[in-house]
Amino acid sequence: MRKPTLALLLAALLPASLAGQARYSLAVGAMGGTKLLTDQIFEDIKVTQVLAPTVTLGANFPVSKRERAGFEVSFANWKSRVVETGEPTIEGPAYRTLSVTFGVDGPLFSRLTYHGGAGLLKYFPDKQGIFLTGGPLLLVLTGGVDYHFPLRAPFGLFARARYDYHRFSTDELQSAGFARTQDVHRVGLGLGIEYQRP
Amino acid sequence: MNRPTLFAAVGATAIIGAIACSDLLPPSRVVSYDWRLIVPFDSGGQSYADTLSFHWPRSSIPVKIWVEDSFNLPDRIREGIAIWKPIFIYGEWDAVLVSDSTKADVIVRGIQPPPIGFARGSRVHAMARSCFGATDVDTGATRFQLLIPIHSYVYPSLPNAPDILQCMQIVAAHELGHSLGILEESPDSLDLMFSNPTVTLPSANDTAAAINAYHYPANMIPVWR
Question: Which of B41, B43, B98 lies closest to B65 in space, CA to CA?
Answer without folding.
Answer: B98
